[in-house]
Every structure is written in C-alpha cells, then in structure tokens.
Amino acid sequence: MKGAVIGCGFFAQNQLEAWRDIDGVEIVALCDQDAERLNASGSAFGVERRYTDAAKMFDEGGFDFVDIATTVGSHRTLVEIAAKAGVHIICQKPFAENMADARAMVDAAQTVGKTLMVHENFRWQSPIQAALNVVKSGTIGKPFFGRVSFRSGYDVFSGQPYLAEGKRFIIEDLGIHILDISRALFGDATQIAATTRRINPNINGEDVATMMLTHENGATSFVDCSYATQRSPETFPQSLLEIDGTLGTLRLDAGYRLTVQTEGETQTDVSPPLLPWAQKPWHNIQESVLTIQQHFVDCINSGRQPETSGADNLKTLALVEAAYMAAEQGCTVSLADV
Ligand code: NAD
Ligand code: 89Y
C-alpha cells in the first residue's frame, strides 16, 4: 500500500516513524508548505517525491492513501481534495473546526466510497486498551460511574507554539482525546455540563476544564483536564481512570498501574512499550500512533470501518462543541442540540 503524508511538522515525525514500521506500507510522497520542514523530513525518511502544494501532489497521484498531519485549519480542504482524488484518508485530530465542516468531510469520503479515519489515538494507548478489555469482559459488571482524568504541568507550548495562540485550547486539543476515551469506556453521551478556567496568563485559551457527562446507558462520567497542575511525579501524558461497576472497580493510576477489585484484587503493570524510535514520556502516545495506523491499514485490507472513523468522530467532536457551549452558557447541553 502506497501512502502520502501532508504536514511534516512536530507530530508528523511520529507518524512517519510508525509508517516505516508497518509491513506492506511505503510512504512515496510528502507535502508541506514549508520547504525546509518538507526537505528535512524527506531526507530523514528517504522520500524523494516532495511537494509544497497538496493539489499538485494529488494531480500526480500514485498512492492509495493520504495521511493528513496538518493543524485543523486545513483539514476540510485537504480531506475534500483527497476524496476527489479517490484515496483513503487518515486525518489528525481535531478533525474539523466545526460540526458543519466535519459532516461535509464525512460525506465527501462516503460519496467516493473511501475509508476516512480520524487519528484519534488516545483510546489506542495500550494502558487504555487494557482497561477497556477489563470493562468489556464484564469483570466489574456494568459501569455506573467513571472518571477520566488528565492533569499535568508539562510544557506543551515549546513543541506546539500554536496551542498558546487559539481562543480555544485544552478541550479542543487534549480534552477531545479524554472525551473520546470516555465514549470508548461508557458509550455515547446524551448531555454534558462543563466549567473552564485559564490559569496560565501567557496563553489565550482555557487550560483547565471539568466536564460531567450523562451516557445513554445511564452511567455518569467526569472528564477533567488541566495543563496548569504542578505536581510530582509529573504524569504527562497519562490518562488516569476510576471506574465503579456493579460488580467491582477499576483504577488506572499514575505509573500505569491497573488495579481491578472484585472479590479479590489484581494489580497489573500496563506500562506501554518503549518503541526503538520513541522517547519518554511521549512513548505512551507514540506507541498508540503505530497501533492506530496499523488499524487503519487492517481496516482497508479487510473492508471494515475503523473504530475511530470520521463518522464515529462526529460524536467526539460534538462533545467538544457541547462542552464549550455548556461552559459559556453555564448550563447542561443536550448532544441532540449540537
Ligand atoms: P505543526 O504546526 O508542527 O505541523 C503542521 C505542518 O503542516 C507545518 O509544517 C505546516 O507548514 C504544514 N501545513 C499546514 N497546512 C498545510 C497545507 N495546507 N499543505 C501542506 N502543509 C501544510 O503541527 P503539529 O504539532 O505537528 O500538529 C499537527 C496536528 O497533529 C494538529 O492537528 C495537532 O492537534 C495534532 N497532534 C496530535 C497528537 C496526537 O496525539 N494525536 C499530538 C500532537 C499533535
Ligand atoms: O496536541 C496534543 C495531543 O493531541 O496530545 C498531546 C498534545 O501533543 C498536547 O496537548
């Protein structure tokens, strides 16, 4: 399977490493508007075909899928060009700037019958998968309460300076993953309430968000995120879990310790592996990049819909929109209204 990558910035380096690890995949073309970044990645990953204009790259074709690793402002345009060119698409989160764009992007891929997956990778982290497997096995019964928590003081702005500039920050950038984990664990939500704060005076958006979701199955989950939490040990980029079920409880604590209590108690170390090209503490995220990209390839090969497809991601994106509405208006927002 031949692929092209658009966007050769900070995070794309992980995606390029992961593509190199996947059997049967070759990245044959790269695109970035910034020629310096384009050439640096082209040389590092041995890709000869290089473009500063995505439309030209699609005109010349010769690949089966495109990996869109640019920031959100370009996603709709690039997904629509890719769909027109008739290739499968994997697109970074946040999928779109608003629901109308996201729905149009899903329609564009559906019209041409191509796979569209969102690079929504946090639920694919192996510690989260371990927790999901326990929940799916029924060991703790039916979950009725959950907390999915991401609290850190890690400096994400040095690698991703644009995160300090937008009017929106933590819900759109990071909370989106944590909300998606909540969906994966407890199912779709019917309503959400939220509060937001900005603690760091040097950024424009909110860096603290506390959200409460009601799920279709009656479960309640708290999803809390912060980039203003100075604590030791620093847990970036771990998502911590507490789940109460009708037969027992599950905790995913700092240091990747998974505890399941029913009649007895089991504790497991679910630390993610350190891939040869990964660096701590990012290795947790980096491993999930390989897993999600392998899932994309497996789905194309078997004709299955990816778990984190564009259509599925509309529901995660709707939670993001609803959370901002709820925080702004100080009310509970029904997902049916988004
Ligand atoms: P970045 O700014 O470092 O890189 C983006 C690159 O895309 C830049 O080099 C830019 O020149 C290029 N670009 C933008 N528009 C383009 C266009 N139309 N055509 C060609 N090139 C274009 O950004 P980043 O930090 O790498 O983030 C990229 C995306 O990845 C963001 O949406 C971010 O939210 C996401 N991200 C995801 C994770 C994750 O775990 N899933 C982690 C970090 C970042
Ligand atoms: O952009 C974000 C993401 O998706 O994961 C962590 C991150 O890099 C900073 O919040």
TrEMBL record:
* Sample GO molecular function, one term: nucleotide binding
Residue stretches making up the Gfo/Idh/MocA-like oxidoreductase N-terminal domain: 3-118
Which SUPFAM superfamilies does UniProt cross-reference here?
A: Glyceraldehyde-3-phosphate dehydrogenase-like, C-terminal domain, NAD(P)-binding Rossmann-fold domains
Which InterPro entries does the UniProt entry name for this protein?
Gfo/Idh/MocA-like_OxRdtase_N, Gfo/Idh/MocA_oxidoreduct, GFO_IDH_MocA-like_dom, NAD(P)-bd_dom_sf
Record domain GFO/IDH/MocA-like oxidoreductase: where: 129-251
Q: Which PANTHER family match?
A: CONSERVED EXPRESSED OXIDOREDUCTASE (EUROFUNG), OXIDOREDUCTASE
Protein's UniProt name: Predicted dehydrogenase
From what organism does this protein derive?
A: Yoonia rosea
- Provide the organism lineage as a comma list: Bacteria, Pseudomonadati, Pseudomonadota, Alphaproteobacteria, Rhodobacterales
